[in-house]
């Protein structure tokens, strides 16, 4: 999806299933984190990088920290739009800003930020994000400027 201002935006569509809800038919709070994880994975895929391929190249992305705020409930059968925007790009980490909106009326349901670290597959030690991946994220996010603070 492209935003009106010419910047690229991204949203992953998903549906709320019975398994995502509590007894009242409302999405259980931790499932928003799953929706956002899937959107980050699909963002990578859209840029041409599959996590299965990256793992074969000794690269994994792991969540270092997360923050979420909940505004309104999603319910059984709602269709959701889940964004995944890189707002900070460092040598070994990415910070994503994400939002979950109801597709039918664009109501903001949940938003969060996630610091995701790039690590080696076997040792889980930090490693630099490959230049091709860094360039892909910088091209779509404008977050190519390195932060002074690393993980």
Automatic annotation (TrEMBL):
Does Hydrolase count among this protein's keywords? yes
- Tell me which UniProt keywords the record has, alphabetically: Hydrolase
Look up the domain of life of the source: Bacteria
> Per the database record, which ranges form the Thioesterase domain?
24-107
Q: Which NCBIfam families does its entry note?
A: thio_ybgC, YbgC/FadM family acyl-CoA thioesterase
Q: Which PANTHER family does the record cross-reference, listed alphabetically?
A: 4-HYDROXYBENZOYL-COA THIOESTERASE FAMILY MEMBER (PTHR31793), ACYL-COA THIOESTER HYDROLASE YBGC (PTHR31793:SF37)
Write out the similarity annotation.
Belongs to the 4-hydroxybenzoyl-CoA thioesterase family.
Q: What is this protein called?
A: 4-hydroxybenzoyl-CoA thioesterase
Q: Give the taxonomic lineage as stored in the record.
A: Bacteria, Pseudomonadati, Pseudomonadota, Gammaproteobacteria, Pseudomonadales
């Amino acid at each position: 999806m492209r935003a009106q201002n010419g910047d690229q935006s991204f949203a992953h569509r998903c549906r709320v299933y019975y398994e995502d809800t509590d007894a009242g038919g409302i999405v259980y709070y931790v499932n928003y984190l799953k929706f956002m994880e899937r959107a980050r994975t699909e963002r990578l895929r859209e840029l041409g990088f599959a996590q299965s391929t990256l793992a074969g190249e000794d690269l994994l992305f792991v969540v270092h920290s997360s923050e979420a705020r909940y505004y309104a409930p999603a319910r059984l059968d709602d269709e959701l739009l889940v964004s995944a925007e890189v707002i900070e790009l460092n040598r070994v980490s990415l910070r994503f800003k994400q939002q979950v909106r109801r597709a039918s009326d664009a109501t903001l349901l949940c938003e969060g930020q996630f610091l995701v670290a790039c690590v080696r597959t076997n040792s889980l030690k930090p490693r630099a994000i490959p230049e091709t991946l860094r360039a892909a994220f910088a091209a779509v996010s404008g977050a190519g400027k390195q932060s002074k603070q690393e993980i």
